[in-house]
Specification:
Elements lengths: L2 H11 L7 H8 L4 H15 L2 H8 L8 H13 L8 H11 L4 H6 L4 H16 L2 H14 L1 H15 L8 H21 L5 H30 L7
Helix pairs in contact: 2-10, 3-6, 3-8, 3-12, 4-8, 5-11, 8-9, 8-12, 9-11, 9-12, 10-11
């Protein structure tokens, strides 16, 4: 691993989005099923769209090794041999085990912070320099997610009676995204100029700032006390 990638990963590990107060509360406080359902429905809005970022970004990367490297990530995202093991399918299984139905996640109104997260990443992968996109989807997503999901798994295990297979979407990502991060690191290592490194870091930090705001929205929605009129 080159020095730039190591330094960027060290920076990401210290970022507030990766150890956000929402994540700490989710992992340690007593949560109702309703609170976990609310989290699950909002977070699903990110899950169902993630692969779109990759399909938009890939043809914009001028590197002949991209197709081969991305194929490993696509295979995991799409479930390899069956769509029933795709990541969105695994996540919907988690929602069902929480007692939710198809129309619950089909009718949910995303929080503004959730919508903005999705919009920003569509803009980054579609309109920004491809190196910014690489930074956002590689270190900004794939490297950071195992750290964040470790908090989420603790909260799910603490506050539900779900079996491990019911929330394997999260445990899979703690393992798989470490491998995915290595794949993106291989791509990133092909871009070594100061300008390359500047844009890759910019993309990673843009993504993490959007994630911080996303967690802010969830923290407010799930943990803020409900005001009642007297």
């Amino acid at each position: 691993m080159n020095t730039f990638i190591q330094d960027l990963q060290d920076e990401i590990e210290q970022h507030v989005a990766v150890h956000h107060p929402f994540l700490k509360k989710f992992s340690t406080l007593s949560l109702s099923i309703g609170q976990i359902q609310q989290f699950g429905l909002q977070h699903y809005q990110l899950v169902k769209i993630f692969v779109n970022y990759m399909t938009i970004l890939q043809p914009r990367i001028p590197d002949p090794s991209t197709s081969t490297l991305f194929r490993h990530v696509y295979d995991d995202e799409f479930g390899q041999h069956t769509i029933f093991r795709s990541h969105p399918a695994l996540y919907r299984n988690f929602l069902k085990r929480l007692g939710l139905q198809d129309n619950d996640w089909g009718r949910i109104t995303p929080l503004p912070e959730v919508s903005r997260f999705v919009e920003l990443h569509m803009e980054i992968t579609r309109d920004e320099d491809f190196r910014i996109g690489l930074g956002a989807i590689g270190p900004g997503h794939e490297f950071s997610i195992p750290h964040m999901f470790s908090y989420l798994v603790k909260g799910i295990e603490k506050n539900t009676s779900l079996e491990p297979e019911d929330y394997e979407y999260f445990t899979f990502h703690i393992i798989q995204d470490k491998h995915h991060a290595e794949i993106f690191n291989e791509l990133i290592s092909h871009y070594n100029t100061p300008e390359d490194r500047k844009l890759i870091r910019e993309g990673a930090l843009k993504s993490l700032e959007a994630r911080r705001i996303f967690w802010n929205g969830l923290e407010k929605a799930i943990f803020s006390p409900v005001l009642t009129l007297k």
